Amino acid sequence: MIPIRLKLKDFLSYSDPDPLDFTAFEVGALIGDNGAGKSALLDAMTFALFGAARGCEGGQNQDRLIRDGADETEVDFTFSLGGLEHRIVRRRTRKGKGDLNFLVSDGETWTNLAGETLRETDARVASVLRMDYKTFTASAFFVQGRSEDFLSRLGPEQRKEVFVRLLDLEAYEKLEETARSRSREAERRRGGLADRIAELEGASAELEATQAELATAEKASADLAASVDGLAAELDGAQRTVGELEQKEAVLNAALESLAETERAATEADSSLTGKRDLLIEIDKLLARSEEVARAVEEAVAVREREARAREEQAKAADIDRRCVVLEQELIAEEKSIRRRLADSSTRANTLAKEIEGLEADHVRAEALEKQLQDAHLLEEAEKRNEIQLEECRLAGARADAQAAAIREKLADAKERMTLLTSGGAECPVCGEPLDAKHRAQAKKKLQSEAAGLKTQQDSENAALETSRKEFKRCVEERKRIKRARDDIASVSAQREALLAKLERAPALREEASALASQIASDEAALGEASFGEGLRKKLETMRSELAGAYNAEEHSLLRSRLEELRGFEELSGKIKQATQQRSLLAEDIASLEARRAELESGLGQRRTVIEELRAGIEDLPRERRRRDELATRLDELRREQADLTAAAARLSERLEAARRAAADLEATRTAEVQAAAEHRSYRRLTEAFGRGGIPDLIIDNALPELEEEANRILGALSDYEMSVHFQMEKLTKSGKTRDTFDVLVHHDGGVRDFSMFSGGEAFRIAFSVRLAMSKLLVRRAGARLETLVVDEGFGTQDPQGRERLVEALNLARAEFSKVLVITHLDDLKDLFGAQIRVWKDPGAGSVFDVQPA
Fold it and tell me: Taking Cα atoms as reference points, which of 703, 632, 663 lies closest to residue 232?
């Protein structure tokens, strides 16, 4: 994978910078202050490729990648792979929604390789790259803070898994699984065929026995058919006899229902006759009270008229009473209004008193603020002195920086001359004369003395520079204090103006307090003497006099009671009128019912005689029914037996046909079973070849010596050949068995230690050597696609000599990688890697960069 173009929008500290063109350089250094956004460019590439970055692996914490204040981020990354140009555009929103496009170009048009889902598209990207995020960052992508991921963060099993992926051995895992699956399928097929052979052999052996059983079953079925026909004829005769008797039974049931209906009609006639006779007696009793009821009705009319007049008087008295209540409520409301006004006036008077008291205190505060404002001119003098001191500190710092730079140049020159002297040149780099051993020692001593003096001057200048920085910091703090004092003066002026505005209200407040005091005295006098509402009190007294003789409640109650007693007689008057009309009709109904009752009694005797005759004619019906049911049951049994024999014969026919087919299929099935067994053995051998101990292990065994040799060549150059590594792929367990591993053993100081026992610069050099060797190995192998080497901040743990050796190792890798990108913030390394991509923070646009060619 060779990067071509990177476009960011709202990603980490980047807003919307111009695209980064990787075609402008082959080897480049990303430079800039810590936190400027150098590593964010590499995070953008891994986010586009795998949807992951530092701290956001596995789909976690994706919101961290979106720039503060933005709702979504987008990375557009174009790269070359296998001679084709690919482009990935990945978006992510704060709501968790994602979008991914994966395109490939044939030189003229773009073809979209994206799947239907985000997960499917990610899988296609990983398939094309032939690696995932873990494999990518463990090989040719040295992420900041994870230089030893492949050795320290990954366990032995995970190291081997990454190595297998990088060697493109996953294809053998798929072949092994496919061979194992097909071997199992062939074995299942062979087992099924063996079972089928046993079944066919048994079915073929039963052929003659099945023929004999079928003949016996067919003869028994024919014999049983004759018995079924005879019994069916006998059953038909029994059913005809039962049918004739059941018709007679139906006539009897109809006669019984008619008799029951006549008896019910006679009973109903008796009941109706009794009720009508009782009602006639009651009507005669009611008609006997006609005169008494007429007198009571006349009295009720007179009492009702008197009660109506009493109700009118009651309504008039109630109206007067309501008007009195209204007047009383108005008096109470007026008193409450005066009391509320009195309470409000008292509250306002208290408030005014406190406000007036506060204004007197504000007057004193205003005088104090006026005095503070008179001292403002002192701040101006202090501010001028501070500006002069700040400028002096800036000049002193600049002088110290210039002197320190000059001393560094002299030290570098002395170091270069010392290097020439040590390398054994023929002339002295100090005086130019020919060198002998004595002259070399004198020149070396002189250079060392000169370097020591320069180092002393450098320490002195550094101390002076530190003193200047402290003084500058003190002046900055003094400027902040003066600014705060100025802000305080502005606040004091505003407070004074506000107090003066408040004091202008004092006369108006005192006048309002005096008016309130007069109102309070007036309201208190009115309440104490009850002198309010005089007109209302006079109206109330007049209405109460009218109410005294307007209505007699006791007399009205007696009229109501008597009217209630007479209401029953009024109801009886109406019933007497109805009874007079009803009596003649009731007498006619009674005569009609007596004639109907006599007619029904005469018909009952005739129906009972007919019923007795019908009962005698159906005495044999139960016996005939039992005989019919027995014949039907026996016929069903015979028919079931006949059906069973027919079904048995059909089954035997099928068995006979199956036995004949089995004899024909047996030989073909035996041939297929032999073929399935042979196929199973072939796929089992392929499973062993593609699995552990097979072709993948042979490939690893062939690649490891090359990887180990390359790693030791790089590590030797980095460690002055004091360290070397050895890869151990198997180890013995406590039980004496071997298990797979990927341990990295380091030979150092005459001993062997595991990589985990190293730290700091040594650990980084070992990890760098292994990682770089692995990357170079994979680049040289035909199936590998690692064409870019990225090192993110790998030099901070090294001493100067270690850094020089790492630079040499990277320069050696240039010939085998199409693109080399190094991120560093060390000044002495910035000019050693060709082109520079300078990154800095812009206050408005966020992180920005530009490319400076070599």
Answer: 632
Q: How many CB atoms lie within 10 A of CB 660?
A: 13
Long-range contacts of 663-671 (CB under 8 A, 24+ apart): 663/200, 663/203, 663/204, 663/207, 665/200, 666/197, 666/200, 666/201, 666/204, 669/193, 669/196, 669/197, 669/200, 670/197
Please name which of 798, 802, 777 lies closest in space to residue 140, comparing C-alpha atoms.
777
> Using the 8-state DSSP alphabet, how is residue 18 labeled?
P
CB-count exposure of residue 523 (10 Å: 0-12, 13-18, 19+)? buried
Q: Regarding predicted confidence, which is higher, 154 or 508? A: 508
Neighbours of 751 (CB within 10 A): 7
Q: How far apart are CA 488 and CA 479, in angstroms?
A: 14
**Which long-range contacts does 258-264 make (Cβ < 8 Å, 24+ apart)?**
258/607, 259/604, 259/607, 259/608, 259/611, 262/600, 262/603, 262/604, 262/607, 263/604
Gap between the Cα atoms of 560 and 569, Å rounded: 15
In DSSP terms, 20 is beta-bridged to 6
Instruction: Output DSSP code: residue 11.
Output: B
664: confidence class by pLDDT, cuts 50, 70, 90: confident
Which residue has tokens 């002026």?
A: 493
Question: How is residue 706 written in tokens?
Answer: 């090359």
List all residues 6 or more positions away from 338 whose beta carbon is below 8 Å from its beta carbon.
523, 526, 527, 532
Q: Which range has the top average pLDDT, 30-34, 419-423, 662-666? A: 30-34
| Sole residue written with tokens 């990610």 | 122
Residue 7 and residue 840 in contact, taking contact as beta carbons nearer than 8 Å: no
Q: φ, ψ for residue 564 (rounded to 5)? A: -70, -40
Residue 184 contacts residue 681 (beta carbons within 8 Å): no
Residue 430: CB partners within 8 Å, gap ≥ 6? Answer: 417, 421, 443, 446, 447
Closest Cα partner for 83 from 167, 166, 1, 165?
A: 1
CA dist., res. 25 & res. 834, Å (int): 8
* Angle, vertex CA 95, rays to CA 93 and CA 96, nearest 5: 70
Burial class (CB in 10 A: 0-12, 13-18, 19+), 832: middle
Q: Tell me: pLDDT of 230 over 70.
A: yes
Q: How confident is the model at residue 147 (pLDDT cuts 50, 70, 90)?
A: very low
Candidates 693, 667, 519; CA nearest to 197 is 667
Backbone angles phi, psi at 97, to 5 degrees: -85, 140
The upper half-sphere exposure of residue 264, i.e. CA atoms within 13 Å in the direction of its Cβ, equals 6
Separation of alpha carbons 162 and 138, rounded Å = 8
- Whether 245 contacts 620, CB under 8 Å: yes
Question: How many angstroms separate the CA atoms of 116 and 120, rounded?
Answer: 7
Report d(CA 75, CA 45) in Å as an integer.
8
E strand or H helix at 266: helix 207-287
* Average of per-residue pLDDT values in the chain: 78
Q: What is the end-to-end Cα distance of the chain in Å, rounded?
A: 23
631 touches 231 (CB < 8 A): yes
| DSSP assignment string, 194-219 | HHHHHHHHHHHHTHHHHHHHHHHHHH
Give the model confidence (pLDDT) of 542-562 as tens digits.
877 776 766 777 788 887 887
Residue 784: band (very low, low, confident or very high) from pLDDT cuts 50, 70, 90: very low
Q: How far apart are CA 684 and CA 689, in angstroms?
A: 9
What whole-number distance in Å separates Cα of residue 491 and Cα of residue 369? 10
Burial of 257 (0-12, 13-18, 19+ CB in 10 A): exposed
Q: Which domains occur in the chain, in start order?
A: 377-503 (1.10.287.510)
pTM for the complete prediction?
0.41
Q: Which residue has the tokens 């062997």?
A: 752
Report how far residue 646's alpha carbon sits from residue 809's, in angstroms, rounded to the nearest whole number. 95
